[in-house]
Amino acid sequence: MFEVEKVNPSPEAIAAQLGLPVSQVTDALLLKIAEDELFLHHLEICRTDERLMTILLRETDANVASRQGQSTQELLRRASLAVVRWASSGFRKVGQATYDRRLAACTACEHLVAPTGNLVHRLTGARSVCNLCGCETRRKAWLPTEACPIGRWQEER
């Protein structure tokens, strides 16, 4: 098993360690390795199975592409704006029935995913996040000033 601290993050070094052509070591793959300490271990385990490696590499590129703009800085910016909006409402929360309805909509949504390992998600203990906005759904659903990015539920005025 590779130890993340000892890995040289250059594409050439990763390619050599995993037995991949350098062309397959994309920026998305390097980002995933940096964000998720276990991902490199998963690649190591699957490196002799071409089919599994193809799946891991393809999903990495698709996952990172779908989460563009959700850097720690972007998530912090969005969260700060949400807190300002929430503060302007007097820190109100929606009622339990509204919360349950919102959370049910999120739970049924195809955009609900496991957290990426982003610093914000780790610090908040996020269990599930929206892949479109990056928000932790259990918390966002309580805020009357917030809305689903695709309109499954709206803010309350």
Major sheet characteristics: 2 strands, antiparallel
Helix content: 40-55%
- Return the structural class: mainly alpha
> How do the strands of the widest beta sheet line up side by side?
1-2
Strand content: under 5%
Low-confidence stretches: 1-8
Q: What is the 3D form?
A: elongated
* Average predicted confidence as pLDDT: 81
List keywords for this structure.
two-stranded antiparallel sheet; elongated; mainly alpha; 157 residues; 3% strand; disordered N terminus
Topology:
Layout: H1 11-18, H2 27-35, H3 39-46, H4 50-66, H5 72-88, H6 96-107, E1 112-113, H7 119-124, E2 129-130, H8 137-140
Antiparallel strand pairs: 1-2
Verbal overview:
This protein has a two-stranded antiparallel sheet with strand order 1-2. Helix 2 (27-35) crosses helix 4 (50-66). The protein has 8 helices and 2 strands, in the order H-H-H-H-H-H-E-H-E-H. The chain is an all-alpha fold and 157 residues long. 52% of the residues lie in helices and 3% in strands. The chain has helices at 11-18, 27-35, 39-46, 50-66, 72-88, 96-107, 119-124, 137-140; strands at 112-113, 129-130. The model is unreliable at 1-8 (pLDDT under 50).
